[in-house]
Amino acid sequence: MWLVFSVEFMLGVPLSNFGLQPRTMMGLIGIFSAPLLHGGIVHILSNTFPMLFLGMVLFYSYHRIANKVFLRCYFFTNILVWIFARPANHIGASGLVYGLASFLIFYGFFRKDFKSLFISLIVLVLYGSIFYGVLPLNNYISWESHLAGAVVGFFTARQYKKVKV
């Protein structure tokens, strides 16, 4: 994210034009690029810290499934946005953040073991309020990415609940 943001800033090239544009051929590239693109410093900072924290929790606590969970949250979220979202240029890693947070919250409740429940409660306390972001309250925020990420995280947690971690 920061490398792409730095290149965009230093070269003055608006890479955000390569965001996810639903149901367009050009928008297909956004399935890969949208989480790497940000609209400004505040936008990238608001995604950086949750990505670092949630990513560290995921990869440290559930290293056997972490890559699969991360890739599902990255790609399935963006595929859902491409299919169902309103016509707009969707950029940013918040869909991925919502996917990771949703996975970490629901995984403990599905598994019902102490470690996973403890992680779920910590993430719920720290990031539980993000679920207000799935509501269409602001036209400049891709609530569709938030909702898609939350849904992908939920179903990923449900699918992997019996996998030995």
Automatic annotation (TrEMBL):
It is found in: Membrane. The chain crosses the membrane at residues 41-62, 69-85, 91-110, 117-134, 140-157. InterPro entries: Peptidase_S54_rhomboid_dom, Rhomboid-like_sf. GO terms for molecular function: serine-type endopeptidase activity. One of its GO terms (cellular component) is membrane. It holds the Pfam family Rhomboid. One of its GO terms (biological process) is proteolysis. Keywords: Hydrolase, Membrane, Protease, Transmembrane, Transmembrane helix. Residues 29-157 form the Peptidase S54 rhomboid domain. Gene3D superfamilies: Rhomboid-like. It comes from the Bacteria. Its main location: membrane. This is Rhomboid family intramembrane serine protease. The lineage of its organism: Bacteria, Pseudomonadati, Bacteroidota, Cytophagia, Cytophagales.
